[in-house]
């Protein structure tokens, strides 16, 4: 039977999701609150990891070892890196890379030492399901769950879904210079965030299927700190709840 672990870094990225849970049961482990229950008919455990690769890895490992999840879903926001990737778009990862992993000259840049992996693929089947769910949410539901004001504020005209490489590192990218460096070394990256590739590594090591969903909150440029805060406060959780609902109903 399926038990879905659902991680977000911050409260603002998952607000309201546990309100839809039937028979919620909370328990604390390692300074995090895990809430188990039934979400739209699916056995699930929701948790906030906080920010960064270590926080995300500890959370994923606990979900697997302590709460017995069979699948892991991460839902949150990211900075847009790809040329066509705009605020309000959704990026579903098909591959993840830790952009701050560099053990040269002992190992190739980005390779996770002694695993032979530099790009961690997400589960193909779960990722396809999540991508279909996200597309359905964007096309059929987004206009119902964001206000007119927010549509104007964030210029959400026709948000799109992208499938591709997501880069994670313990760094909030907020300058054109850093963004340019990242594009030079990893030209295919669509979005940058701080947890996905850590969850990917833990799930790879435990042999568990996982998928990473990211709504673009900012352009990883000088405006990123302000855009990010506004976006997570106003709309991020609408995306998370809407997409997770579509995933559970598939
Ligand atoms: N998450 C959302 N925006 C981000 C950015 N610009 N850098 C890193 N993580 C992010």
UniProtKB/TrEMBL annotation:
Keyword hit for Hydrolase: yes
InterPro entries xref list: Nucleoside_phosphorylase_d (IPR000845), Nucleoside_phosphorylase_sf (IPR035994)
Q: Which GO terms describe its biological process?
A: L-methionine salvage from S-adenosylmethionine; nucleoside metabolic process
Boundaries of every Nucleoside phosphorylase domain copy: 4-238
Tell me the CDD domains matching this sequence: MTAN
**Uppermost EC category:** hydrolase
For this UniProt record, give its keywords in alphabetical order, as a comma-separated list: Glycosidase, Hydrolase
The membrane spanning regions, by residue number, are none
Q: Does the keyword Hydrolase apply?
A: yes
Query: Cellular component per GO?
Result: cytosol
Q: Which NCBIfam families match?
A: PRK05584.1
What is the protein name for this chain? 5'-methylthioadenosine/adenosylhomocysteine nucleosidase
Which organism's genome codes for this protein?
A: Noviherbaspirillum galbum
């Amino acid at each position: 039977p399926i038990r879905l672990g659902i991680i977000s870094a911050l409260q603002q990225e998952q607000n309201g999701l546990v309100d839809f849970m039937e028979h919620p049961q909370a328990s604390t482990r390692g300074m995090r609150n895990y809430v188990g229950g039934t979400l739209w008919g699916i056995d699930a455990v929701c948790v906030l990891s906080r920010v960064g690769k270590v926080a995300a890895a500890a959370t994923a490992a606990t979900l697997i070892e302590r709460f017995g999840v069979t699948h892991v879903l991460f839902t949150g926001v990211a900075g847009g890196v790809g040329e066509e990737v705009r605020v309000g778009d959704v990026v579903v990862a098909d591959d993840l890379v830790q952009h701050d992993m560099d053990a040269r000259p002992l190992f190739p840049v980005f390779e996770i030492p002694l695993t032979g992996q530099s790009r961690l693929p997400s589960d193909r089947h779960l990722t396809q399901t999540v991508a279909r769910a996200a597309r359905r949410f964007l096309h059929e539901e987004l206009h119902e769950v964001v206000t007119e004001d927010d549509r104007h504020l964030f210029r959400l005209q026709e948000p799109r879904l992208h499938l591709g490489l997501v880069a994670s590192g313990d760094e909030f990218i907020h300058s054109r210079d850093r963004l340019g460096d990242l594009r030079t070394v990893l030209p295919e990256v669509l979005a940058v965030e701080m947890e996905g590739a850590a969850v990917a590594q833990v799930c790879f090591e435990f042999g568990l299927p996982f998928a990473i969903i990211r709504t673009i909150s900012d352009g990883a440029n000088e405006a990123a700190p302000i855009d990010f805060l506004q976006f997570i406060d106003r709309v991020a959780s609408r995306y998370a709840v809407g997409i997770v609902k579509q995933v559970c109903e598939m």
